[in-house]
Amino acid sequence: MYSQVRTLSQESHEYRVQVDWTHDRVGDLLVEEKPTMKVSAPPEFEGPEGIISPEDLFVAAATSCFMTTFVTFSKKMRFDFKSFTCQGMGTLQKLERGFEFTKLLLKTKVVVDSKETKPKAEKALELAGKYCLVSNSMKCPTEHENIVIVG
Amino acid sequence: MATQMISLSDDSREYSVKVVWTGGKSGDVLVSDKPTIRTGSPPEFGGTREFHSPEDLFVASASVCFMDSFVVFTEKMHIRFESFEVETKGLMEKVGRSYEITRLHMKTKVVIESEDLRSKMTRALELGAKYCYVANSMKCPTEHENEIVVR
Prior knowledge:
Number of domains of chain A: 2
Oligomer: heterodimer
Shape of chain A: globular
CATH class of the largest domain in chain A: Alpha Beta
CATH class of the largest domain in chain B: Alpha Beta
Order of helices and strands of chain A: EEEEHEEHHE
Order of helices and strands of chain B: EEEEHEEHE
Largest sheet of chain B: 4 strands, antiparallel
Number of strands of chain B: 7
Shape of chain B: globular
Helix content of chain B: 10-25%
Strand order of the largest sheet of chain B: 1-2-3-4
Number of strands of chain A: 7
C-alpha cells in the first residue's frame, strides 16, 4: 500500500505516490487521502485524449510550486493580492538520448489593489522564482515573465 | 483559458498548463480538455492535505512516465503482462538555502503469465527506466527496485 508523506526531519520530507496500470497506456494515480487521478500517455505518444499526462504533471508541478512559493512570500512580506494566474509552458525536445524537457516558461499575472503593493508583489514573484523547489529540482532552466497590475 | 499542446515538430513539443489561485495556498491546474487538478501546499508548508501538492505532482510525473515508457517497450517486444504497479518515494531535502527533490525511489511490481517472459520483462523495465524522459529531465537520480511475479 502507498503510505503518507513522512517527515524525516525539519530538513527533509518524503512524498509517496502509487501508479496502478489499468489498460493500454492508462493508469490510476493514487496519493493517500487525495482524489484518485486517471493518467495516461498523451495522444502524441499514442495515449487517449482528455486524460492528464506525465508531461502535464511535470509542467503542473513547477507551475503550482511557483504559486505556493509566491503565497509564502506574500505572507512573509505581509501584503494581499486579489488574483494570481500562471501559464506554464514546457518544451520537450528530442536530444541524443531521447526526449527531455529543455525549457520552462512561466507567464504570471498578479492583481493587487494599490500602487504601494505593486513593488512588493514584484519582489515576491522574483523570490518565488528563486526558491521554487520543484523547478530547482529540474534540469531545464525556467524563464519568468511577470506582470503585476493594480486593479 | 488553458491552451492546448502545440506540436512544434516531431522533435519538439510544447505542453501548457494554467494555474489559477483559489485562496490560501491552493489553486486549480487547468489543462485544456482535461479534468481540473486541485493543488495546494502540503501541511508541512502551511497548506491542507486534501489537494495534490506540487511535490506529489512532481513524483507522479516521473512515475506515470515510467509506466508509459515500460508499456511502449512491452509493445515493441511483443510481450504481455497481467498487471503493473509502481510505488514511488521522492525525498526532499534542504540543499543550500532552499529545498530540492534529491532522490526518487521506484518500487515496481509486474505480474506475468509464465516464467518464460521474465527475462524480456526485466529488459522492458530496464529500457522503460532508461528512456523515461520525465525522470531524465530531473536533476535527481532515480533508483529502481523491480519485482516480477508469475501469476
